[in-house]
């Protein structure tokens, strides 16, 4: 369950940082699907970022993850952590550039 909650919090943080980066003109969205959603509406973007992990949490309550499913969840957490590290890198560059 903690991994599912991590994905939810990481998704929300990723959405906030992505919006900040795009609005400030410092980054572009690298995921073409998310880029399309952002073009439609930031609200849709946040909705996707929040609802997908919530759906996973709901599925977890129905059937706890085991075996390959749990390995995929762990992989998703590692990838999201990597994305957040990447965000921290450009945030440091942004503030260094702004100063």
Low-confidence stretches: none
Work out the helix count: 4
Shape: globular
**Into which percentage range does the β-strand content fall?**
under 5%
Number of strands: 0
Biggest β-sheet, characterized?
Answer: none
Gap from first CA to last CA: 41 Å
Indicate the radius of gyration in whole angstroms.
15 Å
How many domain modules? 1
Q: Helical percent range?
A: over 70%
The oligomeric status of these chains comes to single chain
| Class computed from helices, strands and strand pairing | mainly alpha
Order of helix and strand elements from N to C terminus? HHHH
Protein architecture, described:
By secondary structure, the chain is mostly helical. The chain has one domain. It is built from four helices and no strands. α1 (2-23) packs antiparallel against α3 (42-62), α1 packs parallel to α4 and α2 (32-40) packs across α3 (42-62). The chain starts with a helix and ends with a helix. 7% of the residues are buried.
């Amino acid at each position: 369950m903690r991994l599912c909650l991590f994905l939810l919090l990481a998704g929300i943080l990723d959405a906030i940082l992505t919006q900040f980066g795009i609005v400030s003109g410092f980054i572009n969205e690298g995921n073409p699907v998310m880029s399309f959603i952002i073009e439609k509406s930031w609200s849709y973007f946040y909705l996707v970022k929040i609802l997908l992990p919530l759906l996973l949490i709901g599925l977890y309550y129905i059937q706890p993850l085991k075996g390959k499913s749990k390995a995929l969840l762990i992989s998703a957490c590692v990838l999201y952590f990597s994305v957040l590290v990447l965000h921290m890198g450009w945030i440091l560059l942004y503030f260094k550039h702004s100063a």
